[in-house]
Structure formats: structure tokens, C-alpha cells
Amino acid sequence: xxxxxxxxxxxxxxxxxxxxxxxxxxxxxxxxxxxxxxxxxxxxxxxxxxxxxxxxxxxxxxxxxxxxxxxxxxxxxxxxxxxxxxxxxxxxxxxxxxxxxxxxxxxxxxxxxxxxxxxxxxxxxxxxxxxxxxxxxxxxxxxxxxxxxxxxxxxxxx
Length: 158
Prior knowledge:
Elements: E1 2-4, E2 14-16, H1 18-26, E3 34-38, E4 41-44, H2 63-75, E5 77-81, E6 85-93, E7 98-105, E8 112-119, E9 122-126, H3 129-157
Helix pairs in contact: 2-3
């Protein structure tokens, strides 16, 4: 985690995960307290889900949680019910944890309400920032390896 000072906007120091920090650097807050994505698109100030290194439901568009949502939609089980919300389940097979990441959120909005680790080997626990980053890194590594293998097969076929 890193400490970010945004005192120009009336905020005291905020702790941000790696991806939230990158978002703030790319889209700093404007004078009205919004992130200006483009000349006609502004979004509310993001709130990192990992201000103390452990998932907190007091978040809004945390960039790490948004990455995990995308991974779940590509590799996990995802179900949306507009009356109840969305659930995503991702199998995790890492040295640090083997089990499932279960996340809940409402529709496609910014807040992730739950991020729980379930395993037959240990009691349920909240997702930590360290494990969230390792899940993302593992996903990105596997996809780079797949792309590399896929492209090398294309070259061999020619």
C-alpha cells in the first residue's frame, strides 16, 4: 500500500492499493472532487477497498476490485439478478491459498459489498490486498503465457 496526499482537495492522507494509486495518477481529482476521465465523463472519487490491507466494504470503484470482477467474468462463475445483486466465484490455486474467492456487488455499480475466501482447509476470511494482487498477477501471467504459446503455434503453422 502507499500513502497518497490529496490535500488540495480537502482530504487528509489516504492509503491506496497499487491499482487505485495508478488510477489517481492517471485521473487526478478535479476542483469539484471528481475524476475527469474525458472532457465529458466524470466519476465519483474512488475509495480503495484495502485501506488497512484487508478488504473493507466501504469502497467505491477500487481499481483492484474492478480487476478482480473482470477476471471473475472471464474465468469464474458470474450471476446477476437485478433484484438482489451480482455474485462472482473464482477458483484460486496459489501456494498462499487454495479455494474460492466469492464476491458480491449490486448490478455493475462501484461498490463491492463482500470479498470472502472460502476453503475446506480453513475458516472463511476476508480477502487481503496481498492475495488480491497475487490473484491478478497469476491471471496476467497465465494469459501472457497463453498468448505467447498461441502466437508461436500460428508461426509454426505458416
